[in-house]
Structure formats: structure tokens, C-alpha cells
Predict the structure.
Amino acid sequence: MQKINKNVVLALLSLTSLVFLLFQLYYYKFYLSQKNGAVFPKLRGRQSGQDSTRWHVVRKFLGLISSHNIPVYLIDPLILGLVDKDIERIRGSSDGPSPECKYFCAPRDFTTFALLDKTWKHEVGLFRTAEKMGFQWLKIINKDPRLDGMDDLSGVEIPLHYIFKLASHAIHLVVFYERSGNYLWHGPLRLKQHMDRKFVSFRKLHFGRYPGAYEKPELLLVSIDDLKVQIPKNPSSFLEEMSHSRFLECRYREARAFFQLYPDDASLDAVEFRKKAKSLLHLAALTLNNLGVKFWLSSGTCLGWYRQCNVIPHSKDVDLGVFIRDYKADIIPAFQKAGLPLKHKFGKVEDSLELSFQGEGDVKLDIFFFYEEDDHIWNGGTQAKSGKKFKYLFPKFTLCWTEFVEVRVHVPCETLQYIEANYGPDWKVPVKTWDWKSSPSNVQYNGVWPVDEWDDVIQIY
Amino acid sequence: MDEWKPNPAIKPHKKRSWYLAWKYKLMNQRALRKLCQTGAVLFLLVTVIVNIKLILDTRRAAYEEEEESAQDYDDEMLNVEVPRHPVSNKKVLDVEVYSSRSKVYVAVDGTTVLEDEAREQGRGIHVIVLNQATGHVMAKRVFDTYSPHEDEAMVLFLNMVARGRILIFTIKDEGSFHLKDTAKNVLKSLGSQVAPFLSWRDMWTFVGKKGGEVYGEKHAKSPALSTWGDPVLLKTEVHLTSVEDAECHWPDTELNRRRKRFCSKVEGYGSVCSCKDPTPIEFNPDPLKDNKVFDVPVAVIAGNRPNYLYRMLRSLLSAQGVNPQMITVFIDGYYEEPMDVVELFGLSGIQHTPISIKNARVSQHYKASLTATFNLFPDAKFAVVLEEDLDISVDFFSFLSQSIHLLEEDESLYCISAWNDQGYEHTAEDPSLLYRVETMPGLGWVLRKSLYKDELEPKWPTPEKLWDWDMWMRMPEQRKGRECIIPDISRSYHFGIVGLNMNGYFHEAYFKKHKFNTVPNVQLKNVESLRKDAYETEIHRLLGEAEVLDHSKNPCEDSFVPDTEGRVYVMFIRMEQEADFTTWTQLAKCLHIWDLDVRGNHKGLWRLFRKKNHFLVVGVPASPYSSKKPSLVTPIYMEPPAKEEGAVAVPAVAAAEQT
């Protein structure tokens, strides 16, 4: 009897724990599905009800917006992704009712729209109407970056994000601002202390973790799920743009401190050089962007941006970096067409490629090509007279947008590591004499080009 | 769990028999049974461990999520909430007022709200206005009633203060010399017993409520002409009223909310805060048809002259075709009151941390403002630049809208300005007439973005160069021979008297009699002929039809120009080379127009009106128009008066003052 009891108890215990285990697994999966939205859609239950809620909220929001003549456009990555698959059909479709709710009913917590700041007046009436319609709303304001600069200006904080919540769905309205450099900027979403952290789950928003920079999109008015809405004309390129839209502001405060220590060179020569370097950079950006070649500020130009938000007047050239995978043979003819003749070409596509173009009045444009390895990235240098090769090593980096001398350009997001690799820990101290073969702290001797290749890898014009 | 539980209940028999069979089998195989038991125990252990791990994972994930969101979405700058002063329910304010020869101060509830012991400054009557409900300082003024006309300004100010406000007066040094009876009577009507008898170098303090009780007054008579009265210190208590009593009951609209905020903070703006029938703060002027400057940003450059700014913005917002969304007011310094004015009108204001001193500070402020303007409106090709001490003509934007395309198309243009330096009451006549001039007048002008970005901004004078921005812009290195378009009758009016470069005399002499257009919708008549080459044709045509005046007469005399109307006359003056303005300066002086430096010329030609006739002055032989001079006419030469010591410096200094 005792033994039986023991067995029974054991078996019961095992069963209980098994059940408990199953329950835990179920709970965990449920938690995961909440986190990732669509991963376990079947666990969400009451699907149709929830779906139509989303559609209704979007419809109400669009009604609210159009009643105040505020032009918004859809930038929701999830919906745009779905739309992109059927883009041809959607573009061509007439106004006939659509059979099913395919896009706006897709499971998600938010629908994201964009608003161009200059196209609306900041009316209070909108919010009053929104409240009457049952929306709860939240406005996120912050400093106006367009006032950031070498001058210490402070203005009224500007709205960066709005969130309109109705029932279980929320609309995230991202405010885009035009900035000099012909691009659109949206701000980061940062909650101030008194704000309701639980208003929505901010973490799930697609915009706002970082500020972002975008091209001005061409818009298209379409009818999706019987709702008329503006979308970017080319959703896939918008989504691609979105994936690396992160924007870095120049560090004006540090730059001001730098100029306190090392007063700016205001000589006529410096003014002239800056002017030339600026127009050269504008021309280079235009040329490379037209070719679709992604580039970033490198070496001295990058240091100038990071340290003083300006061109370093005693540098002699403008330096750009390009990944070798983005290399195009058209680059040289395109620059020549833009009025920048090739000055020299070192290396070859397979190894240490570097191009130099002659800008106006002695200012040179250097394009260094970067080669990616498993754990680092490098570019090469060649000494013309000796055929010696050098290698400059950088830690891996990703690219961010920034604004420099009124043009939108890329810089390494991990700028500090990039600069420290190149210039060492004392990059904050201006150095006037600089030897590209020995001064950089990341330079390595990389052998000599074989003499029979010299004609190819050392071309000077 | 729910699904599983019912199972044993539904089929108990089957389970039972299956269990029994299994039990008997096990009874027979002891070893196997032992194994099963151990297995079960092990399984139990494993599930317990897995369970614990799951719980931990879930908790950690949840925690990370919170952590993450907190890190990413919290404002970096921890908003250190400034502990607000607890709203004191105190109904009584302690007020201390001190008056003496070299120092005045006012303390309210122990907080010093005025302290002035600077030497040779702040002479006269200091006035402070307190809100009768909160005790906040709403206005602070000093009227140097030792000097003429300041008492009138004080009367004007006191009349504007709303009834019920608390007024505090104190004299520093001397405040009675030009304190006329009108002013004394106003002070008397406020309840002062001493004011009518205030005399030379008396010390005096007074606290009272406008239109109500007197809280205290102290006075010390000066015993002799050469000495001052003894310092006086008045300590008194002021009873606060309730907030409702201190506020007006305007209908609750967006506009009135702005008004309320403004009126509870500051004083001295007159009827805008009047409870009955307040003056409007929104003007809705007629829109312009085909407005070419609707999207042009307007930068208003301001300092700490909020009353001026108020007057300026009123006229700006009343101008036809104004677009308030494009207006930005740039305030040089962290002054509250100008910002209050900006907010009253619902405009956007930006404050600028001052850099450098004096004129260089103004110059740096200009640069920062212009840079920010083009940053805020990256699409803009132009910016309108205004200053806080200008009245803006009702057709200001109409004038710009009709002429701005020239600035876009004609490379030889430097700016369009609303101001004619030589456009006085007696020398300007035709609101539809425009000129090209080689000097940059400023005072309401349009700047081309490319000019600013490509040329001016990179080499703008640095703070250590104590330069005037406008003098710098007029230098040949910057102007490069380009010209500005100006109207005959100015579209702006410079009313500023107090300023860095201003004083009453100077204003009276050079600005007060300036003509200002008040006619709406003026159709400009010769816009296309202002292009570079067309203008020359136009000038030659004008000179061709002009009647040559009698050069034997004195050009300063009124009779020099015949008593006609609508004719064109020309006179020739001596001008040896391009920079020889000897005769012109003398002529300008006797015509009572701008003579401090040379303004308004175009290739040695000046155009103005005399007795309603167009009056041209050509400098011979430097001007290319000299060829139009009949050979018999001798150009007039006027000698400068014998130079006095130091007289040379005057024009140079004064010229800098036009800003």
C-alpha cells in the first residue's frame, strides 16, 4: 500500500509538473507573440474584431486630418511592405470597393503617418476635434535643431511626434521638417519626465528611436481598403531608405568649446578655402548621388565635421570614403563631366584604390575606397615615387546621415572610433603638419607595388 | 490545464484497469519499478529547473524591455524641475523703497526688484508697477525728469497703467528739474501729497495703488542748491487682492488667452489690456492678389525695447499681404518682455545669447539671425530683414511683391530697401516711383540668400572686430558695385529714439520728418525700367526732357526751383572725381536732407523732389551724365564751412548711427 502510494504520488507530481511546464511554455509564447506582433497571430483571438478596429481608427484619423486640411502621408513600414507587393495593382486600381480589408486590417499596434511641418499651421482646433472624436492624444516636443549652430540661439520647442490613441489602436504621426541641404528630418521621440510612459508601448514604434533624414518623397494618392491615402510613390525605396535613415546632429556645443580653445582662422585665405571646399563637396555629393554611389566624409573632412562642424581651413582637400562594393566605372567620367578632371589614380579595384580629382583653385577631392574584412575595414595609400603601399585600418562602422556645410552627407555612425583610429586620442588638438604616410595612428606599411604594375596602379595626370 | 483535467473524470474505469495492470507488472519486476521511480524523480527535477529558467527568462526579458524603453525614449537631459515657489497665500506684501543721491533700490517681500547704484546712470524717477494680485513686477521704467520731455513720457506711461496696479516711485539723484505741472498733477491724482512741491535734489519715495489707496510716502528736502536731500527709506505693507479682481473678464478665446497671459505679466501697453473694449491683437489685413512674397521669411531683429517691438509688430501685422507664419523675431539676449510681446501676437521668437559688445554685438546678432532664418526656411530665396524700431507701411509687401523679381533676375542688384535716405516730407512725392542707388539704406530690406550664403556669411566680421554690420555691408569689398532699389516714398518709418546709436536730437534732425507711405495698394509704375540697362535709358530720357535750372541763383533758396508742379528740373554741381562729394554735402545740408554721409546716388546723380517737381542733381564732370550739361552752364560749387576743431569726426560718428 505504501509503495502504491509512493508511485501514485510520484506520477501525480510528474503530471502536475508537466502541466505546469506546458502552461509556462504557452505563456512564454504568448508573451513573445505580443512582442513581435505577427509571430503568433493565432493566439491573439477575436481576429476580425481587432482588424476592423484598426481600419476604423485609421479611417477616423484620416477624416479628422482631412477636415482640417492637413496633408499627411502613410509611412507605416508594415503596411507599405504589404502595399509594395501589390503596388502595380494599387496604382492602376480605380475607386471600386475592395473585396477584403487587406492592408489596414493587418495585425499591428500602430499606424504611422508623416506630416510636413510647413504644410500646416499649428492649430489647436485639430486637437479639440480629435478629442471630440474620442481620440486621446500625446504631443512630443523638443528643441529645434535648425537653430543649433555656432550661434547660441534658443527658440520655442517644436512638435516632433503626435500619437492619437483610440480603443486598442494608435496613430503615430511623425512631423518632418525641411532642413538646409534639401532633405527632410524627423526628430527622436524622447519622453519628458512628467509624460505618461504607458500611453502606448513606445518601444514598438517604428520611428523615433533615432532622428532620421529622408529625401523629399514623391507622393501618390491611392485608395487602399477603400481609404484614400497618400503614400510614397515608390514604397520599396522608401522602406530601403528608412532602414538606414539614422541622423546625427553636428556637435555644435563641443565645436564652440573647440573654438574657445583654438580661435577660428578668419583670414581671407581660410574664407576662400572654405568656400571652395564647400562648393567642391556640394558638387561631389551631387555627382555621386546621381550615380547612386554611397559615400561618407573621411579623414580630415570627417574630423572637421566632428570637431568643429566646419571645414578645417588648413586642410588642403576634401576627403570622401566609398565602399569598394559601390565602385562604379562611371565615377571618373561623371566627375570629368562635372568639371573635375582626374588628377591621379592609385591602386586598382582589387586593391588600395584611390582617386583624386582636381577641384577649382588647388582644392583636391580625394576618394578613398574601403575594403571590408571580417573584423575591420581598411583603405590603401600609395606613394607615387616609390610605389610603396600603405594600409589604414578602421574598426567596422555603419553609416549615418548628417548635415555638413548645408549638404546632407553620410558619416560613420561610430564617428569617435573612426576618428580615433585615424588620428589617435589627441584628435582634439589641431595639427598643421600632417604626413599621410606616418602621422595617422592606423597606418601600416603594406609592401610595394610590383614594378610591372606601376603603369596601372600609379596614374598621375 | 483546463483541457486536461476532465480526462480522468470521464474515463475513470479504463484508467483504473490500465493502472492496475501496470502495477501488477511492476510488482513482478522490481528492478524496472525502481528505474521508473528514479526516472519520475529525475523528470520532476528537470521540469522544476526548466520552469525556474523560464520564469527567470521571462522576467529578464520584461525587465530589459522596460530598461530599454527607458533608455531610448527618455529625454537625455533630466528635466530638473525647478521647484516652484509655493504659491503664497499671503495677502500682504512688505515693500521697501530707498531713494538717495547715488543709489535707489526697491525690495518686495525681501526680494530686490530694483537696485541701481551705477555712477552717472539712472538719474530721475524710477517707476515700478506690481501686479496687485500676485505682487509680480510688471514694468520697470526710469524717466530722467531732470531732462526735458521725459516727464511727458512718464505721464504717457502712467496713463497706460491699468487701474488697481501698485505703483512704486523713487528718485535717484535729481528728478524735479523738468518735472512739469502736468506730471506733478498726475502724481498728485495718484495720491501723492509731496509731488506738487518736489524741488531741486529732493529725495522722494511713494507707494500707491492706481486709482486707490496710498500705502506710503516719504520725502527729504534738499537743504541747499548744492546739496542733496537725505536718503529716505520707506517701509510699508501692501494688501493684495484676489486674482479674479486683478484680471479682466474677456470672452474665452485663443486670442484672449494670449492676451490674458500677456496682461497679467507686463504693464505699459495701454489699451491692449483694457478690460472694456481692448484693442485687437489680430489684424487680418486684406490679402494681396498674386503675392510674390507670401513665402518669403521675415526676420525681425530686436533687442530689449519691448514697447518698440510692440509698435513695430502691430504695424507689420497690419500690412496687406503679411504672412505671420513666416515672421520670426530674433531677440538679442534672454529678455522676457520682448518674448512676451512676441507671444502676445502669436509669433515665433528666438533668443540669442549675446556675443561681444556694442556694435559688434548687434553685428553678431544680425549674423546669427540671418543664418537661422535661412535654416528655418531652407526653401527661401530671400529674406526680409526688419528692425524693432520701424513702422511698416500698409503696402510694404505689395511694394516688395511687385519688385522682388528684379532681385532674382538682375545680378547687378544688391538689395531692395523700403527706405529712401533722402525721402523727407519736402523731398519725396511719388509713391509709385522707384530708384536705383549705390548705397545700401537698410531699415527694412530684402536680402538674397545666395548673396548671404556665398558672400556675406563666410566673411562676416568676427566678434572681436567692433564693426557695424551695415557699414561693413556698404564697403566696396562687399557691395562690389551693385545697387539697391528704393522707393521714392519710404515704406518704413524709423521711430526709434532710444537705442545703441540713437539719441533724441539725432532722431529729430534726421528721421522725424521722413516721409512714410500710408496709401494702400500703390501700383508701382516703372518696375521694368529698373533693370541695369533699362535704367540708363530711363535716366537719359529724363535728363533729355529736364529743364536746366538757373545756375546763377543760390540752390539753397526756395526760389531756385520755379513755382510749378510736375516738371522735371536738372542742376549740375561740381564733382571732380567719383568720391568728391564736397558740393553735394553742402547742398544736402541746406536742403535739410541726409548729409552725414553720401546716400542715394547713382553714378553721380541724385533724384529727389522739390516743390512737387522732380529735381535731378548731376555731379560734373565725374558723372557719366555730365554730357547732358549745356556748355554754357557752370556747375555750382559750394564751399564747406571753415572746419572747426574736431568737426571732421562728427559725420563719421553720426553716420554710424543710422542703424
User: Anything to note?
Assistant: Chain B touches chain A through 57 residues (CB under 8 Å). Chain B has three domains: 92-245, 298-527, 531-628.
